[in-house]
Amino acid sequence: MTLIWGGLALGAVYALVAVGYNIVYISSKTFNFAQAQLMMVGAFLAYTALVSWNLTTPVVVLVAAAVVAGVAALEQVVAVNPVRDPHNILVTTLGAAILIDGFVQLQWGSQPLAVPFFAGDDAVTFAGGRVYPVELFLIILAVVVVVALTLLSRRTMTGLALLAMAEDREAAQLRGVNVRLMAFGAFVVAGVLAGTVGVFVGPKTYAISTLGASLALKGFVVLAIGGFGSLPGTLVGGLIVGLAEACAVRYLGSEYAHLTVFLILVAVLLARPSGLFVRVRERVV
């Protein structure tokens, strides 16, 4: 069970990255390559606020969420909004990710920094295995975030407007949906999520300047497995990837972890090219 808990926690982190990708994808049918980097900024802000400023965790969460949301809003205004072609947006957000990586390395250096967790670092026995409090918290957080966003997307006018944009952006605009404002809001919400989650990802992964790149890759794998635009798919895909990686490290060696994950990705895409939770619908014109 100890292995399973570790894998589930790792999968929860990947799922939370993929949720941020999906929020932007649903609103604009494109990707924010800097989403994982925004989460990394949240982890570094948590280190500074908790260790250097001695702030409490609730205050740190608010600070990280506000700052990262501001960075996400700036990215949307500068790197996304002026660009019309979705393919070019991939390039501009990749550029934003590179800039954030460079800034983080200049500001905090390249050494891993230990981010404290409010519930301590001592492992506890739970359900037949040893698990750290931060791991349990991340698993619960991932489930709560996915359930909450799924309910919001299906039972609120804002969520329904986002789903309408995902189906047909032009038709949604004709029905009175302010697509630019909704796209901007999606970036801000994804930024709030990244900043908040980064505070709790740091204690699991350490705050390190390569964190964004590593999480970005696994986040896209999770997105492809679960299905683009599917919030429940991100949770299931994340847990699959996390468990597969943990088992590969334990039984095959760390050098086979990435290979195992990508073999699972290939197998899923061969069986269901649109992902586990997305159905391809044909339109008769």
Task: Explain how this protein is built.
This protein is mainly alpha-helical and 285 residues long. It has one domain: ABC transporter involved in vitamin B12 uptake, BtuC. 74% of the residues lie in helices and 2% in strands. The protein contains eleven helices and two strands; from the N terminus they run ααααββααααααα. The chain has a two-stranded antiparallel sheet. α2 packs antiparallel against α3 (57-80), α2 (35-52) crosses α8 (179-205) and α5 packs antiparallel against α8. The radius of gyration is 19 Å and the shape is globular. The protein starts with a helix and ends in a 14-residue tail after the last helix. The relative contact order is 0.20. The mean pLDDT is 89.
The largest β sheet comes out as: 2 strands, antiparallel
Helix-strand makeup class: mainly alpha
Q: What does the overall shape look like?
A: globular
Please compute the radius of gyration using only Cα atoms.
19 Å
| Element-by-element helix/strand order | HHHHEEHHHHHHH
- Architecture, CATH level 2? Orthogonal Bundle
Could you estimate the helical fraction of the residues in percent? over 70%
Q: Tally the helices: what do you get? A: 11
How many domains comprise the coordinates? 1
Which oligomeric state applies?
A: single chain
List how many beta strands DSSP finds: 2
CATH topology-level fold name: ABC transporter involved in vitamin B12 uptake, BtuC
What ranges have pLDDT less than 50 throughout 5 or more consecutive residues?
Answer: none
CATH class: Mainly Alpha
- Order the strands across the largest sheet as they lie in space: 1-2
Strand content: under 5%
Indicate the mean pLDDT: 89
> What is the first-to-last residue Cα distance?
52 Å
Protein name: Branched-chain amino acid transport system permease protein
InterPro entries: ABC_transp_permease, BCAA_transport_permease
Organism: Nocardioides albus
Pfam family, one: BPD_transp_2
